[in-house]
Design brief:
Distance between the termini: 26 Å
Order of helices and strands: HHH
Radius of gyration: 22 Å
Helix content: over 70%
Structural class: mainly alpha
Strand content: under 5%
Length: about 90
């Protein structure tokens, strides 16, 4: 089931990745360049690189959620409940 869900979500992930690269990164780079050229505040000026990470953050959240769900399914038995208790499981 996990493999089917992964395959179904691949198109959405690709679209988000393309938006990150094609739109978000370009807008942020343009804003950064404008600030470097025209801002009077020298404290904000410096070297940096714009990295759009919206798609990566989405994938990390999904992986974390899957790991938590898998852990909860493994510990859903009477023996583990005696060890963990309700507070530990929460």
């Amino acid at each position: 089931l996990s493999m089917l869900m992964e395959s179904a979500n691949k198109g959405i992930k690709d679209a988000i990745r393309h938006i990150d690269r094609g739109v978000v990164r370009r807008v942020i780079e343009a804003l950064w360049l404008f600030n470097m050229r025209y801002s009077d505040d020298n404290a904000i000026k410096g070297d940096c690189k714009v990295v759009a990470r919206g798609a990566n953050a989405m994938l990390q959240r999904e992986q974390t959620l899957n790991a938590r769900t898998q852990f909860l399914s493994f510990t859903n038995n009477p023996t583990d409940m005696q060890i963990l208790g309700l507070e530990g499981r929460a």
